[in-house]
Amino acid sequence: MVPAMTEGHDNRDTWFGDRRVGRDQKTMLVRDVFSSVADKYDLMNDLMSVGIHRLWKGAMIDWLNPRAGQSILDVGGGTGDIAFRILERRPDAGVTVSDPPPAILDRGRDRAVDRGILSGVEWVAGNAEHLPFDEMQFDAYTIGFCLRNVADWVQALHEAWRVLKPGGRFLCLEFSQVAIPALAKAYDLYSFKVLPWLGQQVAGDRGSYQYLVDSIRKFPNQETLAGMMAKAGFAQVSYRNLSAGIAALHSGWRV
């Protein structure tokens, strides 16, 4: 049985940073943001997280534990970071990367060629809310630092459930709510003061990185996201905090 949409799904307003916008408008604005920062995206990830995002993504692959012959969909992973890690761990898996901005997908293809990865990964333009894939097509679905940028989180979770095979795994890595109050204050100061400045200095784009900071604050906390996953039909929903909750991994299964 396909799970029902949650209440409020038809509300067409959402958040773009600290602004209320229509969902279609957010989709276009987010696409502009990532097209703007595509060339510096990976460098900025290293600078913003002081390289810790690499450990978080490693933890994601550890928990995913990909197996031989699995078909894995990585949504919003256009530069290939998660896909490459999956293939390093399990070269005999197949990974499909789906992302809307052409500039991000082009960046991922170029990085794959630079790494000598000429097979095992496909690059498909697609929106998380309307994935261009058949029902029950994938063994696993990963999404890293992307869900908060989607205009309709509920619809994206339902799409994830739809494209997974029975027994398939959903795994989401996303910024979340810091669990230690003293650290939360320092993190806020760093986020709102340092990150936009870094965006201006390195990528020449303060506004895009100000949006990324604001988007983290508007995203559901750990328990709320877990509840949304359960309402979308996922079973055995659980999560793990990373770096005291600066980021969190959420897991669920289609049964």
Describe this structure as you would to a colleague.
The protein is of the alpha/beta class and 255 residues long. Helices cover 45% and strands 23% of the residues. The protein has nine helices and nine strands. The chain has helices at 23-37, 41-49, 52-64, 81-89, 102-114, 153-163, 181-203, 206-218, 222-231; strands at 13-16, 19-22, 71-75, 94-99, 121-125, 138-144, 164-175, 235-242, 247-253. A seven-stranded mixed β-sheet has the order 5-4-3-6-7-9-8, sandwiched between helices. A two-stranded antiparallel sheet has the order 1-2. Strand 3, helix 4 and strand 4 (94-99) form a beta-alpha-beta unit. The radius of gyration is 17 Å and the shape is globular. Mean pLDDT is 88; it is low at 5-11.
Keywords:
9 helices, single chain, 7-stranded mixed sheet, 255 residues, alpha/beta, two-stranded antiparallel ribbon
Radius of gyration: 17 Å
Number of strands: 9
For the termini, the CA-CA separation is: 11 Å
pLDDT < 50 runs, ≥5 residues: 5-11
Helix content class: 40-55%
Subunit arrangement of the protein: single chain
Number of helices: 9
Describe the strand arrangement of the main beta sheet, using strand numbers: 5-4-3-6-7-9-8
* Portion in strands: 15-25%
Q: What is the 3D shape?
A: globular
What is the N-to-C order of secondary-structure elements (H for helix, E for strand)?
EEHHHEHEHEEHEHHHEE
Structural class of the helix and strand makeup? alpha/beta
Mean pLDDT comes to 88
| Main β-sheet description | 7 strands, mixed
